[in-house]
């Protein structure tokens, strides 16, 4: 994979700071390449956060579940706990 600068600002900055010294140019490119990746990640994260803030999710009417507790038939120390929705109708077979 070829490594190159992707943002116009970083390409121009590299051209301005380049000194035609191989080791310096190599280090400068590596530094700018790393910083560019971090900057792109931050810009993407900000864009995603801004888009998520604009989305209006529907607010459902949340209901409180019915929690019932009764002594269990098999154990004397542990009760049987049931959590059901208010609209649930228990059917007896």
Describe it.
By secondary structure, the chain is of the alpha+beta class. The protein has a domain at 8-54. The chain contains 2 helices and 2 strands. It has helices spanning 8-17, 22-54; strands spanning 66-71, 79-84. A two-stranded antiparallel ribbon has the order 1-2. Strand 1 and strand 2 form a beta hairpin. The protein is elongated and about 85 Å long. 0% of the residues are buried.
Task: Summarize the helices and strands and which ones pair or pack.
Layout lengths: L7 H10 L4 H33 L11 E6 L7 E6 L9
Antiparallel strand pairs: 1-2
How much is the average pLDDT?
87
Q: Can you write the helix and strand succession as a string?
A: HHEE
Low-confidence stretches: none
What proportion of the residues form beta strands (DSSP E)? 5-15%
**Span between termini:** 67 Å
Describe the main β-sheet briefly: 2 strands, antiparallel
Beta strand count: 2
What share of residues is helical? Answer: 40-55%
The helix-and-strand class reads alpha+beta
Going across the biggest sheet, name each strand in turn: 1-2
Q: How large, in whole angstroms, is the Cα Rg? A: 31 Å
Can you tell me the overall shape? elongated
Instruction: Count every helix, treating DSSP H or I runs of 4 or more residues as helices.
Output: 2
Which key features would you list for this structure?
2 helices, single chain, two-stranded antiparallel sheet, alpha+beta, 93 residues, elongated
Quickly describe the structure.
With 93 residues, the protein is an alpha+beta fold. It has two helices and two strands.
